[in-house]
Amino acid sequence: MTVAIIRNPAAGGRRGRLCWPAVGAALKSVFPAAEIHETAAAGDAARLAGEACARGATLVVAVGGDGTIGEVAGGILSSARPQTAFSLIPAGTGSDFSRNFAWPAEPMAMAEAIAAAVLRRIDTGRLLRLAPDGSTSIRPFVNIASFGVSGEVVRAMNEGAHRAILPGPVRFQLASIREILRYRPRSVRVSVDGVEVHRGPITAIAVANGRFFGGGMQVAPGADLADGMFEIVVLGGASRLRVMTILASLNGARHLDHPLVSVYRGSTVEVESLAGDGNHALLDCDGEMFGPVPARFELLPASLTVKLPAPVGSAVA
Fold it and tell me: Is the bond leading into 294 cis (omega within 30 degrees of zero)?
């Protein structure tokens, strides 16, 4: 195979930097002719993936977190050769998309698992956001896009003054607690496949292709990467204490029976803001900020070819 490796050197902070020599050596051992490219700014991963596809790469491997993974996958899908195979080495703070697959622990075993994996097709998502000037911004995603308090947490993580000081998991926990305590439920109207399913205040809504977000929270345990459907999880507006309780239950997928939680399935989701004060719910897409609603989420069935270990808990055709 002609292999291109795209690495985000900032992914995972200090731990990511310390792990890279072993990861890089393992990848070069298994794929000795692989090209290695590093990102320096937002958008680089998508551009580098597109350029690799144009040069004839048959496999593009992302080394980074969910944002890098989403960018590389998006770069492949928007290239002249969208059938190019995609893989990854999890190296981010949360690495939630990678949790959908059965990864071995050691770098060499990870690289060998990629080499041994059979090619599969999985679904991806596309998020479209209408800007106040009438223009439309589009971003692909492979895992989860959401809005509400989750968007506020992602904003705080990306803009935090202590990004380079505290470990990623610690920063995430602190940002989550702080933003939950600050958050006022935003009012939205949500439709799934043209049918209104929610009108009123929300804490968060996840439009899920994969099952995990927020550093391992299993928000959508029924999501399947290859079933042609999103799982849409709605957490209605609630007091801060109830929100903390519900979010704590996400780790064991114990939230689905809560009266404030509703789950829907569909291939298109539309959301508009009902906030009269202009304080609209914030979107995040594969762990990256994407501005406020309104927005439309579209599922693209079997759109991405992957070379990844066997899935965990759900079928990937």
Answer: yes
Q: Quick one: three-class SS letters along the chain?
A: CCEEEEECCCCCHHHHHHHHHHHHHHHHHHCCCCEEEECCCCCHHHHHHHHHHHCCCCEEEEEECHHHHHHHHHHHHCCCCCCCEEEEEECCCCCCHHHHECCCCCHHHHHHHHHHCCEEEEEEEEEEEECCCCCEEEEEECCEEEEEHHHHHHHHHHHCCCCCCCCHHHHHHHHHHHHHHHCCCEEEEEEECCEEEEEEEEEEEEEECCCCECCCECCCCCCCCCCCCEEEEEEECCCHHHHHHHHHHHHHCCCCCCCCEEEEEECEEEEEECCCCCCCCEEEECCEEEEECCEEEEEEEEEEEEECCCECCCCCC
- Please state the separation of Cα 157 from the chain's center in Å: 15
Determine the pLDDT at residue 163.
54
317 has pLDDT over 50: no
The pLDDT tens digits for 128-141 are 998 778 889 999 99
Q: What backbone phi and psi angles, to 5 degrees, belong to 218?
A: -85, 75
CB 89 within 8 A of CB 63: yes
Q: Do the strands 59-64 and 85-90 form a parallel or antiparallel pair, or are they unpaired? A: parallel
- Answer with the residue of higher pLDDT: 91 or 215: 91
